[in-house]
Design goal:
about 130 residues, mainly alpha, Single alpha-helices involved in coiled-coils or other helix-helix interfaces, cell membrane, TatB
Length: about 130
């Protein structure tokens, strides 16, 4: 962050020793160290909060993508099932002409002849 070399730190320490004095310098240095520690912790907390928010946003985007793909997959399965169901229903139902021909009753004149033919083998001639 700051480009401070060792020689510059020595100059700062000598100026602080002259200005503050040898009796109060250790206490001031300790206080400055505590303040710098608090500052570093605060900066690290802010960085971690920003990183958490960014990860949360990425997870929300990922969640919406997964939900969209799940919906599209579900829709494709539904369409496939409905088309398969429709084709099976069409295959099971006979054509309309065949159903209509099977439901037509035989003519009235043919019915007594069929009954007579069925009764004839039951009556055998006596010999």
């Amino acid at each position: 962050m700051f480009d401070i070399g060792f020689s510059e730190l020595i100059v700062i320490a000598v100026v602080a020793l002259i200005v503050i004095g040898p009796e109060r310098l250790p206490k001031v240095a300790r206080t400055a160290g505590h303040l710098l520690g608090r500052l570093q912790r605060y900066v690290n907390d802010v960085k971690s909060d920003i990183n958490r928010e960014m990860q949360l946003e990425e997870l929300k985007k990922l969640q919406t993508q997964v939900q969209d793909s799940a919906r599209s997959f579900e829709n494709s399965i539904q369409q496939g099932l409905s088309s398969t169901e429709q084709s099976l229903n069409n295959a099971i139902q006979p054509p309309a002409e065949t159903v209509a021909a099977a439901e037509v009753p035989p003519p009235a004149a043919a019915a007594p002849a069929a009954e007579a033919a069925a009764a004839a083998p039951a009556e055998a001639p006596k010999a």
